[in-house]
Amino acid sequence: xxxxxxxxxxxxxxxxxxxxxxxxxxxxxxxxxxxxxxxxxxxxxxxxxxxxxxxxxxxxxxxxxxxxxxxxxxxxxxxxxxxxxxxxxxxxxxxxxxxxxxxxxxxxxxxxxxxxxxxxxxxxxxxxxxxxxxxxxxxxxxxxxxxxxxxxxxxxxxxxxxxxxxxxxxxxxxxxxxxxxxxxxxxxxxxxxxxxxxxxxxxxxxxxxxxxxxxxxxxxxxxxxxxxxxxxxxxxxxxxxxxxxxxxxxxxxxxxxxxxxxxxxxxxxxxx
Length: 272
Ligand code: DGL
Prior knowledge:
There is one protein chain. The protein has 272 residues and is α/β, with parallel strands linked by helices. It has 2 domains: 3-98 and 213-270, 3-Layer(aba) Sandwich (Rossmann fold); 101-211, 3-Layer(aba) Sandwich (Rossmann fold), CATH 3.40.50. Helix content is 44%, strand content 17%. The strands form 2 sheets. A 6-stranded parallel beta sheet has the order 4-3-1-2-9-10, with helices on both faces. The chain is globular, with a radius of gyration of 18 Å. Residues 12-14, 16, 42-45, 75-77, 120-121, 124, 152, 188-190 line the site of D-glutamic acid.
């Protein structure tokens, strides 16, 4: 098989990264993906930086062994804490994309003289990565961030688009520090699933920046730059692995891919 025909490796703690994979499927119809959801360790947002680096390194070794030609860290928390180790494990020939840099660049380029809100896991918000990167690239922006730790586990359990999730979301978004924001970054790949509810809270008064489409465009650009884009439709099927089988993962995978998927369990943590 030629290098261009190899799959793109994507990983997250669970179903969140499927929002990125779904957007990638739309702009990269020729590519095949190997997705890894680390459902055994979810939520990453509550874990130490050291644990996240440890999980990410092991997952990337797995994806490299499956001959992935590029790695997409489809998780903000892992992007904030493990980008360097993922690059080290992938090695110089396999490009790595994280979900934070493309969104920070998009925001710095498209907004001026205003306030931007960010919501994400505790791990992402405490790293201050969005605040530092955006304010460094565009000094006219003020970035305000708040951790919303209940949201990823809530979504993972299938709780969205209902009155309970709307109440929790409203509670987080009504924080005083968010009162003057002009746009809100959904800084967790699980959050596109609650975009409707966030829109409902703001009644379309502000733009909600969803990273999936921005990241998918960056992946496309990088594949072309590195001559790694597949010119014809891949013969490989997308493959989805989880470290612990969950029903909600299987259901969400069907929603995002709209095709029959092979959901496999890979107990990579049992291996030395
Ligand atoms: N989807 C992930 C993120 O973008 C992590 C959610 C979690 O496992 O806490 O941060």
